[in-house]
Design a protein that fits this description.
With 158 residues, this protein is of the alpha+beta class. The chain has one domain. The radius of gyration is 35 Å and the shape is rod-shaped.
C-alpha cells in the first residue's frame, strides 16, 4: 500500500466514524422505563375499576338469587301468603323474631341478605292476594355509577 492510498483511506474513514456504536444510552433507558411505568399504572387503574364493577355485578346477582329464594319460600307456604304473614309494611333491616314459618323465612332471608350484601341491605315484601312484590335495597356506591340506595324489585304471581 502506498502513502497516497493510506492517506485517502484515512480521509474517507476518519477516526471513530467507522466503528459501530453498541449498547443504549441512559436517556433511552429512562424513556423506556417511563413508557413501561405509564403502561403498568394504566393496567392497575383498569384492574381497580374492573374489581369495583365486578363487585356491583356480584351484588346484583346475589339480590336476584335471594329474592327468588324468598319467593320460593312463600310458594311453599301459601297459607302464610294469603294470611299476610310475609307482608313487612316497608323495609326490614333487622331479622324479625317469631316462631311461625313466615317469620323464620323472613329472618333467614334478611340474615342472608346482610351476610351476602353487607349490613346496609334491607328487604321488603308486600302482597295483594297472590300478587307479591319483593324489594331489596343496599348500598351500591362502590360500583362505578352506583348509588347509596340501590333498589331491585321483583314481582311474582304466587
Amino acid at each position: 500500500m502506498n502513502a497516497h492510498s493510506a492517506a485517502s483511506l484515512r480521509r474517507r474513514n476518519p477516526a471513530g466514524c467507522g466503528r459501530r456504536r453498541r449498547g443504549v444510552t441512559l436517556i433511552e433507558v429512562l424513556v423506556s422505563v417511563l413508557v413501561i411505568t405509564v403502561g403498568l399504572l394504566g393496567a392497575a387503574a383498569m384492574q381497580a375499576v374492573m374489581l369495583r364493577d365486578n363487585q356491583g355485578s356480584y351484588e346484583y346477582t346475589q339480590t336476584s338469587i335471594l329474592t327468588q329464594s324468598i319467593l320460593d319460600a312463600m310458594r311453599a307456604n301459601p297459607a302464610g301468603v294469603t294470611g299476610g304473614a310475609y307482608d313487612t309494611a316497608g323495609y326490614v333491616c333487622n331479622a324479625p323474631n317469631g316462631a311461625a314459618l313466615a317469620a323464620r323465612d323472613l329472618a333467614r332471608w334478611i340474615t342472608t341478605l346482610q351476610s351476602q350484601m353487607g349490613s346496609s341491605a334491607c328487604g321488603s315484601v308486600s302482597c295483594a292476594a297472590a300478587a307479591c312484590t319483593v324489594r331489596v335495597r343496599w348500598d351500591d356506591s362502590r360500583a362505578t355509577g352506583g348509588s347509596a340506595a340501590h333498589v331491585v324489585e321483583m314481582a311474582a304471581q304466587l
